[in-house]
Design goal:
heterodimer, A: 140 residues, mainly alpha, elongated, B: 317 residues, alpha/beta, 5-stranded parallel beta sheet, 4-stranded antiparallel beta sheet, 9 strands
Amino acid sequence: MKNNLTETVVWPGASAPAAENDSVDLAVLRGFEEDQCEGEPDFVVELIDLYLQDAPAKLRELRIALACGDLETLGREAHSLKGGSASLGARRMAVVSEELELAAAGDATRDGLAILNDLEGEYGRVVAALEAERWQRVGA
Amino acid sequence: MKILIAEDDPVSSRVLSVILGKWGHEVVVTRDGLEAWAVLSGPGAPPLAILDWMMPGMDGVEVCRQVRRAASATYLILLTAKSLKEDLLAGMEAGADDFLTKPFDRDELRARLQAGERIVRLQQCLAERVRELEEAVERRERAETALREMALTDDLTGLYNRRGFFTLAEHHLKVARRAKRTPVIVYADMDGLKRINDTYGHQEGSQAIANLASVLRQTFRDSDIIARLGGDEFAILAADASGADASDGLDTIRERLCENLQRYNEQAAHAYTLSASLGLTRADTRLSVEELIAQADEAMYQEKRLLKHNASQLVPA
């Protein structure tokens, strides 16, 4: 996971990561081009930045909530992360978030910590995919 | 249209606000339910709100509940990943008008917004219409008041009122002066109105006043000015029938009125008898209406004193 992230950031020009990394459905993400306002900064990039700013805090909240057994916060943050991820086409991220949300509601399929670890791993791949897309769009 | 967004997920919030902005809406962005409720309950609140179901602090369903508790007509769309029927029903019960499932589809968003806008416009039309109607009612009431203030007739009896009497009597006196005629002024004070009111109620009192008015109408001619000056006071300006001897004319009028009252009391068979104290005077056409009324009033008191109250009252023997 770490490898993937580092690779993308260090060699952003490479086309390989986007092709190998299917954590983000680029068709969904690029669908927001439709909403681009003329003369405004790239809208897809704006959304990528918003997501990358917001998600780490949510993951941190999830870890704290899980450690404290605060199921309400766990459920709410997982739900929120699910929404944002699904919007950008991060399908697996959304699915695992939902798994955690359901776990918070007492509908666990496996251990909460295992789900959260999985979620963080998936987030790494999402970051890689989004960074690659970002690089391709603005070159920075 | 001004639209409020309440959404804690920054990506969804931004997408929504950009799309709505592109469609020409003015967007107010809030991050949680409490912030949303503060805007919706404040001045200049947006008529339509898109509320995320799950938010920290106050969730979208609770915002719906608060808005409806405040009897606000804001059109509320709940944004949710939930699509269970029970969830939707709970949202509707809390006061939501519509739902939008996340991640939303632009065409669906547009369609649901159009439906919402239609309702908002109808509500605004309705509010505008109510305001217009209230204004119309107010205008009409003002006009009616003005009309009442200008009225020359008395609502209860249909006779002239005080203003009517003074307006017409003045004109009449001028004509009489030129024609060298001497009209008669009659001042009539209905007896025992207070007693009738106290014993049989005000409605019966009003009826008694109206009955006395009809007796006066029978007694005098249409061309005479018959008026209720107010309360139990009446005044009549009559063109003198006899035209000859002064006292003769007055007596004729008095007798005729007395006879009519007596006949009325015999026929009506009320628990009380209708009677009035009278003061009659020949109108000196050089005097003002006020002076002539004062003269007739004085004549009534003279007569009352002279006849020790009872004899002058037109109670049938």
